[in-house]
Every structure is written in structure tokens, then in C-alpha cells.
Amino acid sequence: MRTCGPAIAVALVLLPALAIAGCGLGPGDNLGQVGLTVTRDYGARRVIPPVTDEVNESDTVMRVLERNADISTRYGGGFVQSIEGIEGDYGGGHSLDWFFYVDGVESTVGGADFQLRGGEQVWWDYRDWSAALSVPAVVGSWPHPFAGGYEGHDHPTVVECMAAGAACGTVEARLRQAGAELASPGEGGSTPIRVLVGPWARLRSDPAAGEIDQGPQSSGVFARFDQAAGGEELVGLDESGDPARRFGAEAGLVAATRRGGGAPTWIVTGVGAGGVEAAAGLLDAASLRDHYAVVTEGGSQTPLPLGS
Q1: What does the CA dihedral 209, 214, 215, 220 come to, rounded to 10 degrees?
Q2: Which residues of 163-202 are buried (b: 16+ CB within 10 A; e: fewer)?
Q3: C-alpha dihedral sign at 42, 48, 52, 57
């Protein structure tokens, strides 16, 4: 067992952060690997190639980024100002900045304060936040948060099927393949990750899913369902939150949101059964990776927001 000498003990009193690595001044035990993705414009373009990095007890999100990219910081080093020369910009009705997600959940603390435990997927994205200051959850870190949980804790996944038909079985199978621990509704404890599957007319009454009807400023999802002749239609929004494309009756949507500090809620939906089935087929890395949300129609995928 290591012991701390007097000089180090004093340092620990003056600098409590050193305690993260134990009594010694070394980096601490190896925790395994984390993935790092850095993009811009809602995941449309990669700023650096994807990285897998070994992390230890003293590593934070910021330290991993510093090791793998050229960055500048602000507010005493706690927040990122620029990555690879791309820095925050404000004016002309637009506000652009760097945001980061860990396991598909937007962080509420700065990168220097987010301690890693190993196994996470970290995603930094530079985006225009004029229409949505917060995008609380995204689908682009699949298979996270289902593989290993989020915020340092394992969480079961509860699939709630509402007139979903065969799509529900597809969703459950994809989640098991991703490493999710599935629980029945009511058996997932107080903080399960929820996956809602079904036509939008059945899902919109759910408090979390229903925030999509309030627009991206509320839900972080750049899509909505409008009344149309014969029913509803799925509409994709651009970065400003304005309608950019109207999809057909068989289009499906996969999106994620989060209410308050609760667990993320994923939404697998469409106007009708065909759209829900198409959306269920999107649950894989090839379709979702680096996207905030995705619409599928006619076998092709469209990332949201449009025009990013």
C-alpha cells in the first residue's frame, strides 16, 4: 500500500483535485477506452477522424480532447473556445458554439468537470444554437446510451409499444444486439431509458415525446407532425427551426429527447405503421452515427436538421 509523504499531504489539502489520482501524483489506474468524435454543423462534417483513447482515473472529457485535438479554452480552462481553429461565433442572428455529449446525452457541466470512467462515447459538435440552445439527447452515439448506461451509471431500457405491430419486436431485437438490459414497464426502477415505439398519434400524449410538438427549443428535435389532407405528415425542420421538407405517409423518425434531469427517451415513430416499421429498421450504427435525429423514407435516410 502506498502512503503519502508530508509534502504530498499538504499538496492534497491545497489542491483537492489531486485526490482524484490517489495519494501519488501519477495518473491513476487505467480505466479502459473511450471513443471521441468531433464534428460540426449537427454532425454533418467531421473535424478530426474518430479517435479511441485510453483513459485513467484522472481523465476528464477536456483532457481527452486536449490530447487529440488543437484547442483553446475560456473561463479558466473549463470550457472550449475553439477546436482545430473553429471558434465560437455570434452575430447576424446566429450563435455558434461547441457542445458535447457523453453517451448521447448533452452534458450540463463543462468538459473539465466531467470525469470519465471508461467505455464512454464522447461527441463534440460545433453548431448553430439559435433555434435550440439545448438539444438534450441525440441518437448519433448508438449503441450508447443502451450499451453501458450514461452519466457513470448503468440503466435498464424499457420499450413501450403503442400499436407498434412488428416494429416493436424489431426494436427489442436491435436493442439486445446493442447490449441493452431490457426491463418491462414498471420494472426498470426510477430511471430507465425509455424507447417509445408506435404511430405519432399514439405517442404524442406522452410527456417526453409530446415536447416535439413544442418545437426544437423545447425538445431539441428538428421535426414536427402537421395536419394534412387525410391526416398528418412528418415535416423536417432546418437549423432555424423552419419547415424544410415534407415527407410522405410511409416516412419514419428516430429521435431522442430528455425532460429535466431524467433519463433520455428515444422515439421510434411515423404517421402510420409503415413509417414505424421503417424507423425501427434504423437502429444501427450505419444509419444513426453522428446524427442528431434521422428520418427514413423509401429506403434512404435524411439527417435532421435539414440543410446542416
Answers
A1: -40
A2: ebbebbebbbebbeebebbbbeeeebeeebbbbbbbbbeb
A3: negative
Any domain includes 136? no
Q: Are residues 284 and 195 in the same domain?
A: yes
**Which of helix, strand or coil describes residue 176?**
helix
Distance (Å, rounded) from C-alpha 7 to C-alpha 254? 55
Looking at the fold, whether 107 and 162 belong to one and the same domain comes out as: no
pLDDT of residue 10: 31
Residues 96 and 229 in one domain: no
Domain, as residue range, for 297: 157-304
Apex 123 CA angle, 17 and 19, nearest 5: 10
What is the separation, in whole angstroms, between the first and last Cα of the chain? 54
Same domain, 189 and 235: yes
**Structure-block grid coordinates of residue 127:** 453548431
Low-confidence ranges of the chain (pLDDT < 70): 1-28, 188-190, 308
CATH number at residue 44: 2.170.130.30
At 273, give phi and psi (nearest 5°).
-60, -40
Which tens digit of pLDDT belongs to each residue from 174-184?
Answer: 999 999 999 98
pLDDT of residue 15: 30
Q: Structure pTM?
A: 0.88
142 located within any domain: no
Beta pairing, strands 71-74 & 94-102: unpaired
Residue 27 located in a structural domain: yes
Of 10, 67, 7, which Cα lies nearest the Cα of 38?
67
**CATH classification of the domain holding 230:** 3.30.379
The pLDDT value given to residue 24: 36
d(CA 144, CA 163): 26
DSSP 192: P
Q: How many domains does the chain have?
A: 2
Domain-located, residue 224: yes
